[in-house]
Design goal:
Strand content: 35-45%
Helix content: 25-40%
Radius of gyration: 18 Å
Number of helices: 2
Number of domains: 2
Largest sheet: 2 strands, antiparallel
Order of helices and strands: HEEHEEEE
Structural class: alpha+beta
Shape: extended
Length: 86
């Protein structure tokens, strides 16, 4: 059901080209209806295993300002600056 309405949304969404250095960005302001956006948000919010990462700043451990979810190959480690994902 959602897949069909996404196709319909693509047809009716107005395309905006955003001017950014070294990038080609096309923005569709009304790509999804409000109902579709709410449904997609709830699915992502509920189904993804989000986590709150921490880092040390001046010796004090603090929460990063956003929750993240990383996906990769099993039995591989990923390192981004001071955060490791296994």
């Amino acid at each position: 059901m959602l897949k069909n309405s996404i196709n319909e949304s693509k047809k009716s969404a107005e395309k905006e080209v955003l001017s950014m250095p070294d990038a080609d960005v096309i923005f569709y302001r009304s790509f999804f209806s409000q109902q579709e956006s709410d449904e997609l948000f709830q699915n992502l919010f509920n189904e993804i295993k989000w986590r709150q990462d921490k880092m040390k700043i001046y010796g004090k451990e603090v929460n990063l300002p956003r929750k993240t979810a990383w996906y990769g190959d099993r039995n591989k480690s990923y390192h981004v600056r001071v955060i490791s994902y296994d």
